[in-house]
């Protein structure tokens, strides 16, 4: 069901999930039933808290009592309470009980909130909570990237809630200074209380300075908080008079500071008004690369966190440290038989992963900052390893010449990410009984740190004795183990790994089902772990020259094989899947062709065979007989079909003649299948691995494997790269920045190291997409170059070093000089012996002598070596001109790639008199974190079936499925996640198409907030979401908001890319139309004409896009009564329509009608003018019709340019559409297949409404696939 069955692995994860879904098709209702069980009907309880009126609260039976606690701690009137219990009829409710298990709790029950005595832990939690409430509107946590806070600016542009109810408050919020409730709230220096005071119930002491400048000392005791008589220098714990004993700190402060009382309640009002999505924590930390200058305020909780967390214990968890490995593995072992169980399991897995990632990131930073003691302190720094908070950390250096044959340190730097990909893949296959380690890779300050959970017992034993499967020395000594073979056998099919034999140093054959360096260790907990999965996928021969091996022609033509800087280049999983898919189609064609020939020779062949042949014919034409919502209707994959044929032949000798068996055998042989009765392609990951030897007996098999690898390498060059470029030319893929380009390449299985090849390919195509992508190579050059320069820098010089580097790279100032304060230099030299943290032996200040010329030379050579791309320019200024780049875009790319945070201000890059950056502009360095993204599989099935339904035109059913998916996603991921964002976007679009504008607006608002919070405020995805939201705002007649949002999107787009991008045309068309709607004609023209220019450049002056653009411009001229210009543009449009679509197409007719109308208007105007000239003031003038555009007509045009068309479909059109849908899927375009979302009948062929929206219409956010 989870796609881990042995059969459904044809297309890797994506389809495995679909097949899994299809198997359950017969019991589909069962599935829905399960879902309904989860959303049991809620009921209402009354809650009575001290000091306020009782209020009612809606709860659901699934909730725990704890969740009511959370609600109360969040409500405006009860938020200051943390230490209380809930009582029903005098009985205290257990925090961890589900509501449905509590006797007597029903509709209308009264729950009392009872204040409980404090403990030290409760008092701390209380102070921390109060501090959180005080800081709730302060964005500093989001800028500093702590506690999973991140930024969101939507409410600034919509001025509050889009419903329009809360506008007033929000205007205040945006313009008033932040409210200050207290000057200082901090732990007192008198902590902890001495023994005799502990016996009086003192738990801890606080020190507060109120806004009125009153200094007070407060005792937290078991009964609550009161003022004591201590001062800063005298300890007198006796209660002051009056002592104002209060159970909550807020009540106490309300009594001693009137300003606190006023501001605190105002602050809570505002806090509660914010959209929940602005304040929920995100699952993984998002960092901002810019931040304003903030003053550093006193903050006891932050200070305390900084010290306690370094010890690695988190005090709110029983047992102090978390056993990460145990948590990660136990969640995997949870049952998964039915939907509720699977949801619980996936939710637990996701939660533990996100906690583990956060802890690992904190630990890695602590390690690099030097806050953690190494477990082998006597060795040199490179070789040190660390344990903190039950996580094991190692640095990305080649420690014991482990990677000597693979490229030394460079290989050691790549290995962790390869290993992480392996972990990701094995986790996705999810075989019971096979365990992987929790793995997180963190790049911070130029170091790469790998964080892993710890196998129980591994630290007590030597590695040699614990490895019972695989090899610890790259294939000299190899061992195997039957249990591991059995477990790995289950993964071999989905991962396309071939079981094979290798020789160890004693020349004995050992059987393996993974690469040799994949090690199996049985932990003390009896679980079977696998680690070092860095070679899960087969090697990439284009970058692995092997003596005596000939590469295929396609590769040689492009200059491969090439020596790469390390030998760990693997093909991506996406490529392996695409290659197998490609081979499968080939296999079907071959088998079908041969069968056809036989059929022609032998009319009397059996019926069984005919069926087989006809089924295969369909497939041979490349239309695989399947529809989106499942592989073939009866749930058999195409793969199984051939298998059936093969099996029938094998079992039923009489019925099937040997010839057809021969057919399958030949086809198998031709495509390189490892079995000769069915299609099955697998790779041997150890081929070409230095140090691995194969026995004589498998010589032939190894030869076949080598050939297969060469074919795969050639396939990447001959199919995937041209495919990518074609998609860019068709505008099905529109990368906006480095990250989106990398994603587009990775989806097609193309590694980043092929970038130079992609660019060369583009420059040879007669395409115009060149400029779109080229800039990325420069920035990637930097990405690989920067770490070399970070290692050798002492902490005290880091900001100077970074600003110097940025000056050399981006500033036009000819010779930037690094600022080295003299005294620091002296002390650095002395410290060097003592400080063992400096990993490079280079002179510490070598960076200071770097010149822009040198840096540029390094970047060019890096681009040449790594990407095989030659930069034809002398410096960044020239590059910016030549490739049409903006320096600000480059700055963003560098900062995001390397984790640098920069002061938010206007930078002048072109000043030749002073450098652009000073060291004050470098605010912070953040970690760049790579981790596993656990998936919600059931939710994903619902999402996919929903999309399928929508694409077949069943909007209502689609909508229900997507809503269901949304519920399940929320169940697994909590409220914030990229996939939920995609779900909301699609829902909003469906609401919109079905005419429910306000619902569309509310869903899209959530999608925008979520995209800002989870992906970042200027992520290309966020820009798209802003555009959708603007459209729905316009439909809800909130015109000024729509304009605000579009301007915001345009501003972000300028920052991320610049003017010159096809998306910009779409944006400007949108802005121009809205402006036209509000009768700002001149401004509207500026945007529309800009859009026209960009469209002509990217789509060619003859494309339908451009015709539409001409029409939009003509309409504005018409509104301005400049008929001559209007006619000119409409004629251009008419000509394009006529040439592209023919005379009789409705578009051409519409256009010609409009031309007639314009001509009439122009003639009428001319007549009137003549009349006036002739008769002067007493002329009788016919009133002219000047039309201000109606909102409806503007909205109609907006829909057209955004790719939303409402067209009634005939049955035939539907059939065409389905065929089209399938064709697209074959191109593996599920990502971008939103084009026919609204079923644009003919428009599909005409590419009429093919703006880049579709890519956003149906997103499968597989960013991490």
From TrEMBL:
It is found in: Cytoplasm; Cytoplasmic granule. Residues 8-24, 621-634, 1239-1250 have a biased composition (Basic and acidic residues). Belongs to the CLU family. One of its GO terms (cellular component) is cytoplasm. This is Clustered mitochondria protein homolog. One of its GO terms (biological process) is mitochondrion organization. Keywords: Cytoplasm, Repeat, RNA-binding, TPR repeat. Its main location: cytoplasm. mRNA-binding protein involved in proper cytoplasmic distribution of mitochondria. Specifically binds mRNAs of nuclear-encoded mitochondrial proteins in the cytoplasm and regulates transport or translation of these transcripts close to mitochondria, playing a role in mitochondrial biogenesis.
């Amino acid at each position: 069901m989870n796609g881990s069955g042995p059969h459904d692995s044809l297309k890797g994860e994506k389809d495995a999930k679909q097949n899994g879904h299809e198997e359950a098709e017969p019991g589909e209702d069962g599935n829905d039933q399960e879902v309904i069980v989860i959303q049991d009907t809620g009921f209402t309880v009354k809650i009575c808290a001290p000091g306020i009126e009782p209020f009612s609260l809606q709860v659901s039976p699934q909730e725990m009592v704890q969740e009511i606690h959370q609600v109360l701690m969040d409500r405006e009137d009860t938020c200051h309470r943390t230490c209380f219990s809930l009582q029903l009829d005098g009985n205290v409710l257990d925090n961890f009980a589900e509501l449905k298990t509590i006797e007597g709790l029903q509709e209308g029950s009264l729950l009392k909130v009872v204040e409980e005595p404090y403990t030290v832990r409760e008092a701390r939690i209380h102070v921390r909570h109060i501090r959180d409430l005080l800081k709730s509107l302060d964005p500093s946590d989001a800028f500093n990237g702590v506690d999973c806070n991140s930024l969101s600016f939507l409410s600034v542009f919509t001025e509050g809630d889009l419903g329009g109810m809360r506008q007033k408050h929000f205007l205040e919020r945006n313009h008033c200074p932040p409210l200050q409730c207290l000057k200082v709230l901090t732990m007192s220096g008198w902590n902890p209380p001495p023994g005799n005071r502990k016996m009086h119930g003192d738990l801890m002491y606080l020190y507060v300075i109120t806004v009125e400048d009153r200094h007070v000392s407060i005792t937290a005791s078991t009964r609550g908080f009161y003022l004591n008589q201590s001062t800063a220098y005298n300890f007198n714990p006796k209660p002051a008079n009056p002592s104002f004993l209060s159970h909550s700190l807020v009540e106490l402060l309300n009594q001693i500071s009137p300003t606190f009382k006023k501001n605190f309640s105002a602050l809570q009002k505002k806090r509660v008004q914010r959209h929940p999505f602005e304040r929920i924590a995100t699952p993984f930390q998002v960092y901002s690369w810019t931040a304003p200058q903030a003053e550093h305020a006193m903050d006891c909780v932050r200070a305390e966190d900084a010290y306690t967390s370094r010890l690695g214990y988190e005090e709110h968890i029983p047992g102090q440290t978390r056993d990460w490995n145990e948590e990660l593995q136990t969640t995997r072992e949870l049952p998964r038989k039915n939907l509720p169980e699977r949801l619980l399991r996936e939710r637990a897995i996701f939660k533990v992963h996100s906690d583990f990632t956060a802890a690992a990131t904190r630990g890695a930073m602590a390690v690099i900052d030097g806050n953690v003691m190494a477990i082998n302190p006597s060795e040199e720094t490179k070789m040190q390893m660390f344990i903190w908070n039950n996580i094991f950390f190692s640095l990305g250096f080649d420690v014991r010449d482990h990677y000597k044959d693979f490229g030394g340190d460079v290989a050691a730097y790549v290995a962790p990410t390869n290993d992480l990909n392996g972990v990701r893949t094995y986790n996705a296959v999810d075989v019971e009984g096979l365990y992987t380690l929790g793995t997180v890779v963190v790049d911070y300050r130029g170091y790469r740190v790998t964080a892993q959970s710890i196998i129980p017992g591994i630290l007590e034993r030597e590695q040699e004795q614990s490895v019972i499967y695989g090899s610890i020395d790259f294939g000299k000594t190899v061992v195997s183990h039957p249990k591991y073979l059995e477990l790995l056998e289950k993964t071999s099919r989905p991962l396309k790994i071939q079981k094979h034999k290798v020789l160890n140093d004693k020349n004995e054959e050992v059987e393996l089902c993974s690469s040799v360096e994949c090690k199996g260790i049985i932990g003390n907990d009896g679980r079977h772990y696998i680690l070092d999965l860095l070679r899960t996928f087969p090697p990439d021969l284009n970058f692995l020259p092997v003596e005596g091996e000939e590469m295929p022609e396609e590769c040689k033509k492009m200059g491969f094989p090439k020596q790469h800087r390390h030998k760990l280049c693997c093909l991506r999983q996406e490529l392996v899947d695409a290659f197998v898919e490609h081979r499968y189609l080939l296999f079907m064609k071959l088998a079908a062709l041969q069968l056809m020939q036989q059929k022609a020779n032998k009319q009397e062949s059996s019926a069984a065979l005919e069926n087989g042949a006809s089924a295969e014919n369909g497939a041979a034409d490349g239309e695989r007989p399947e529809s989106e919502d499942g592989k073939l209707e009866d749930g058999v994959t195409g793969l199984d079909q051939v298998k059936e044929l093969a099996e029938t032949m094998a079992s039923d000798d009489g019925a099937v003649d040997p010839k057809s068996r021969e057919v399958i055998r030949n086809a198998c042989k031709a495509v390189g299948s490892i079995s000769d009765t069915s299609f099955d392609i697998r790779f041997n990951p150890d081929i070409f691995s230095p140090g691995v030897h194969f026995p004589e007996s498998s010589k032939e098999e190894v030869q076949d494997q080598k050939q297969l690898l060469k074919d795969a390498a050639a396939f990447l060059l001959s199919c995937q790269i041209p495919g990518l470029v074609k998609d860019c030319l068709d505008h099905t893929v529109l990368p906006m920045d480095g990250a989106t380009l990398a994603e587009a390449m990775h989806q097609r299985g193309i590694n980043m190291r092929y970038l130079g090849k992609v660019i060369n390919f583009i420059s040879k195509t007669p395409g115009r997409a060149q400029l779109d992508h080229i800039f990325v190579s420069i920035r990637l050059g930097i990405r690989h170059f920067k770490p070399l320069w970070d290692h050798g820098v002492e902490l005290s010089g880091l900001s100077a070093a970074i600003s110097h580097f940025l000056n050399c790279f981006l500033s036009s100032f000819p010779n930037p000089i690094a600022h080295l304060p003299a005294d620091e230099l002296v002390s650095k030299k002395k410290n060097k012996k003592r400080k063992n943290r400096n990993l490079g032996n280079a002179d510490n200040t070598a960076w200071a002598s770097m010149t822009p010329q040198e840096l540029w030379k390094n970047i060019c050579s890096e681009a040449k070596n790594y990407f095989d791309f030659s930069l034809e320019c002398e410096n960044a200024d020239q590059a910016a001109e030549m490739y049409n780049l903006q320096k600000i875009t480059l700055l963003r790319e560098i900062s995001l790639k390397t984790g640098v945070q920069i002061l938010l201000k206007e930078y002048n890059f072109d000043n030749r008199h002073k450098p652009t950056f000073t060291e004050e502009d470098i605010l912070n360095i953040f970690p760049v974190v790579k981790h596993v993204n656990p998936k919600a599989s059931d939710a994903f099935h619902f999402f996919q079936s929903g999309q399928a339904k929508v694409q077949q035109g069943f909007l209502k059913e689609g909508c229900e499925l997507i809503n269901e998916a949304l519920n399940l996603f929320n169940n697994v991921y909590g409220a914030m996640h990229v996939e939920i964002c995609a779900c909301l976007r699609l829902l909003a679009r469906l609401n919109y198409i079905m005419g429910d504008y306000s619902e569309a607006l509310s869903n899209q608002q959530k999608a925008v907030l979520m995209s800002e919070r989870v992906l970042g405020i200027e992520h290309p995805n966020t820009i798209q979401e802003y555009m959708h939201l603007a459209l729905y705002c316009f439909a809800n007649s909130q015109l000024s908001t729509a304009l605000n949002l579009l301007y915001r999107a345009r501003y972000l787009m300028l920052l991320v890319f610049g003017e010159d991008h096809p998306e910009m045309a779409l944006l400007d068309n949108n802005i121009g139309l809205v402006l036209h709607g509000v009768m700002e004609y001149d401004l509207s023209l500026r945007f529309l004409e800009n859009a026209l220019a960009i469209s002509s450049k990217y789509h060619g002056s003859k494309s339908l896009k451009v015709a539409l653009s001409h029409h939009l411009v003509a309409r504005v001229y018409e509104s301005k009564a400049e008929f001559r210009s209007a006619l000119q543009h409409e004629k251009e449009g008419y000509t394009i329509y006529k040439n592209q679509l023919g005379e009789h197409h409705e578009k051409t007719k519409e256009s010609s009608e409009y031309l007639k109308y314009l001509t009439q208007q122009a003639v009428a105007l001319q007549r009137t003018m003549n009349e006036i000239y002739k008769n002067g003031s007493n002329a009788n003038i016919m009133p002219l019709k000047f039309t201000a555009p109606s909102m409806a007509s503007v909205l109609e045009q907006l829909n057209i340019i955004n790719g939303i068309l409402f067209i009634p479909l005939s049955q035939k059109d539907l059939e065409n559409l389905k065929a089209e849908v399938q064709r697209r899927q074959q191109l593996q375009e599920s990502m971008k297949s939103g084009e026919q979302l609204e079923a644009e009948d003919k428009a599909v062929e005409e590419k009429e409404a093919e703006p880049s929206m579709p890519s956003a219409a149906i997103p499968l956010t597989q960013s991490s696939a």
